Amino acid sequence: MSLRFDRAAATGIAELLRDAARAEIMPRFRRLAAGTVRSKTGPLDLVTDADEGAERVIAAGLAARFPGCLVVGEEGAAADPALLRRLEDADLAFVVDPVDGTANFAAGLPLFGCMVAAILRGEVVAGWIHDPLGDDTAVALRGEGAWIEAPDGHQTPLRVAAPAPLERMLGDLSWTYLPEPLRTRVASRLPRLAGAVGLRCAAHAYRSVAGGHLHLLLFHRLMPWDHAAGWLLHREAGGHAAGFDGQPYSPLRHGGGLICAPDAASWIEARTKLLEP
Predict the structure, then answer these.
(1) CATH pick for 166-275 out of 3.40.1280.10, 2.60.40.10, 3.40.630.30, 3.40.190.80
(2) For binding Mg(2+), which residues are annotated in this chain's numbering (predicted)?
(3) What pLDDT is attached to residue 1?
């Protein structure tokens, strides 16, 4: 089993995501037949044939490239919750969100992405966020930076926005799943920002904050397929992120919230002004 990720290996996985999107996702976009969209845990938690088909293609491609690796896909873990616990003991694991932003995809909205992260003995070492419509991939390698990679191999470096006071920040704050009274508190304080958006898609939220188009992200639920790749992308683009309690992010920790900001000082200001009573 290979435990090393270089730029050539990173490009190979970007190509895998591109192939999966072209084969399983884009042919179904705005062409979903009756019965191909299903609810899992509630009306905001959907799965489609595109999710399941893309996950099968991605999982098979990763297993072929890295024999013996553990692949934990969102849909696979929904069918077998014990799969998620295996991350704790795996030497090399991949977490896969085949279609992040499924609600957007099912509604025909062009904001969804494919996310994969490589986890080496509990540490996130590489991440990929592919945009099927733009046909490019945001890539991060631990200690080597973050960039957008086009199909022809051209790479554009990513860099977070310059630090700014809260009243000049643009953010995507996912307050829907926050527990009360935090939910009401954060929602009522959105006017403290220069502007707030709700993309309903962590893939594009992380791409936007890593590229300097947003300053701030806030999440409550931290399933690793939703956040491991994006967290590393943001970090390698120069950002600072931590849980609501200030603890570092870990893909083995699935709660406790996460705030992503340009630097530590702006993280503290955001936490103070948005979360504290």
Answers:
(1) 3.40.190.80
(2) 74, 97, 100, 226
(3) 42
DSSP summary character for residue 168: G
Instruction: Give CATH 3.30.540.10 domain extents, the chain.
Output: 7-157
Residues of the chain with pLDDT under 50: 1-2
Question: What's residue 112's pLDDT?
Answer: 98
74 is in an annotated binding site: yes
Reported residue count of the chain is 277
Question: Is 152 among the annotated ligand-binding positions?
Answer: no
What tokens were used for 230?
């994006």
Look at residue 142 in the predicted model and tell me its pLDDT. Answer: 97
In this prediction, residue 38 carries a pLDDT of 78
Instruction: Outline which parts of the chain fall under CATH 3.40.190.80.
Output: 166-275
CA distance 76 to 229: 18
Q: What is the pLDDT of residue 2?
A: 46
What is this structure's pTM? 0.95
106 CB burial (10 A radius; 0-12, 13-18, 19+): buried
Decide if 96 contacts 115 (C-beta within 8 A). yes
Would you state the pLDDT for residue 46? 79
Q: Is 167 annotated as a binding residue?
A: no
Give the class (CATH, top level) of 7-157.
alpha beta
Determine if residue 19 is labeled as part of a ligand binding site: no
Report the C-alpha gap between 51 and 35 in whole angstroms. 14
The pLDDT score that the predictor gives to residue 43 is: 61
Cα–chain center distance at 167: 26
